[in-house]
């Protein structure tokens, strides 16, 4: 059983059609553009790590993600997954069993974003020593 989120035309009192008609595309430098909030979700500390953990496209349980993202609290992981799900980047599947069984995976849009995130992660990992040398003044 998959949870399907339907967008209302006015979630939380916001006229989505009007809001999107103001933009041909996002502008993260504009303080009132929704792209800024989306960027915040994707590039947050745990957001990036969720993308890395889900990069293989497999369905993953919450407990798996919690183990992979060393140091994340249950509350923060749940909040991050909820934000990414709300942005349409992560799909949450709930199975009607006891005990509850919930799995997460990247949507097609999430996979596309993941490729960009992984480029940054690979660059960071590849340049960690150079950056550390700069920090230490070598």
Automatic annotation (TrEMBL):
Keywords: DNA-binding, Transcription, Transcription regulation. This is HxlR family transcriptional regulator. PANTHER family: HTH-TYPE TRANSCRIPTIONAL REGULATOR YODB, TRANSCRIPTIONAL REGULATOR, MARR FAMILY. Residues 33-132 form the HTH hxlR-type domain. It comes from the Bacteria. One of its GO terms (molecular function) is DNA binding. PROSITE patterns: HTH_HXLR. It holds the Pfam family HxlR.
């Amino acid at each position: 059983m998959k949870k399907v989120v339907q967008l209302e035309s006015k979630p939380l009192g916001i006229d989505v059609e009007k809001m999107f008609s103001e933009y041909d595309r996002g502008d993260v430098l504009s303080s009132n553009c929704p792209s800024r909030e989306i960027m915040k979700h994707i590039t947050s500390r745990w957001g990036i790590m969720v993308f890395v953990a889900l990069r293989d496209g497999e369905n993953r349980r919450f407990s798996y993600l919690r183990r992979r993202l060393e140091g994340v609290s249950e509350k923060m992981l749940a909040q991050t997954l909820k934000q990414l799900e709300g942005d349409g980047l992560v799909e949450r599947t709930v199975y009607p069993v006891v005990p509850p069984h919930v799995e997460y995976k990247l949507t097609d849009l999430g996979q596309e974003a993941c490729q960009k995130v992984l480029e940054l992660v690979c660059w960071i990992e590849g340049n960690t020593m150079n950056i550390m040398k700069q920090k230490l003044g070598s």
